[in-house]
């Protein structure tokens, strides 16, 4: 309990110690293609975040030598959402469309199923086939979003959802 109270006190003062690590989706965050994240947090952890809070964004947990890569501002405090209610626009907001479009691997998220992996691979294949036809590329992305949406909505369970905006990116030292 003292640790939670310490973090809540820091959060109340505007940050300093409150972080979110982005792991496999860091590139999407830095490209300003990720504006929402879903987390399997405890109620106590989620209570440290609120609208307007500045949060340090890390590439991975500091416990495994992660580093701060950006600062984000929470635009909508954490709320619980059943994955069956996952909105289709969040396929883009999670950075998934950008990640697949730019050749990244699907992040190892527990609620991204085999069906989602098939959608990911199908979209990447379509991009290779249609690279010179912007209409077909756009249609392929729409179908990817629909397929990912269907796959995610079949998952049982719920997560914390946090919406945010990128405020600044850290300078990378040599």
Order of helices and strands: HEHEHEEHHHHE
Strand percentage: 15-25%
Total strand segments: 5
Oligomer: single chain
What is Rg?
17 Å
Number of helices: 7
Calculate the mean pLDDT score and round it: 90
How would you portray this structure in words?
The protein has helices at residues 2-12, 26-30, 43-46, 90-93, 96-101, 114-129, 134-153, and strands at 19-21, 36-39, 54-58, 68-82, 158-169. The chain is α+β, with helices and mostly antiparallel strands and 174 residues long. A 5-stranded mixed beta sheet has the order 1-3-4-5-2.
Task: Write out key terms for the chains shown.
single chain; 174 residues; alpha+beta; five-stranded mixed sheet; 7 helices; 5 strands; 38% helix; globular
Concise account of the structure shown:
The chain is of the alpha+beta class.
Helix/strand layout:
Layout: H1 2-12, E1 19-21, H2 26-30, E2 36-39, H3 43-46, E3 54-58, E4 68-82, H4 90-93, H5 96-101, H6 114-129, H7 134-153, E5 158-169
Parallel strand pairs: 1-3
Antiparallel strand pairs: 2-5, 3-4, 4-5
Helix pairs in contact: 6-7
């Amino acid at each position: 309990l003292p640790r939670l109270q310490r973090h809540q006190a820091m959060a109340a003062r505007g940050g300093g110690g409150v972080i979110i690590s982005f792991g496999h989706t860091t590139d999407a965050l830095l490209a300003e293609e990720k504006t929402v994240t879903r987390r399997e947090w405890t109620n106590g952890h989620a209570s440290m975040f609120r609208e307007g809070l500045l949060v340090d964004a890390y590439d991975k947990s500091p416990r495994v030598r992660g580093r701060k890569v950006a600062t984000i501002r929470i635009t909508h405090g954490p709320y619980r959402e059943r994955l069956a209610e996952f909105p289709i626009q969040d396929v883009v907001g999670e950075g998934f469309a950008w990640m697949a479009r730019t050749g990244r691997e699907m992040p190892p998220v527990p609620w991204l199923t085999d069906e989602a992996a098939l959608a990911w691979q199908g979209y990447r294949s379509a991009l290779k086939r249609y690279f010179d036809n912007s209409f077909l590329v756009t249609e392929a992305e729409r179908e990817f979003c629909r397929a990912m949406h269907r796959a995610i909505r079949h998952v049982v369970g719920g997560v914390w959802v946090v919406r945010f905006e990128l405020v600044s990116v850290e300078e990378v030292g040599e």
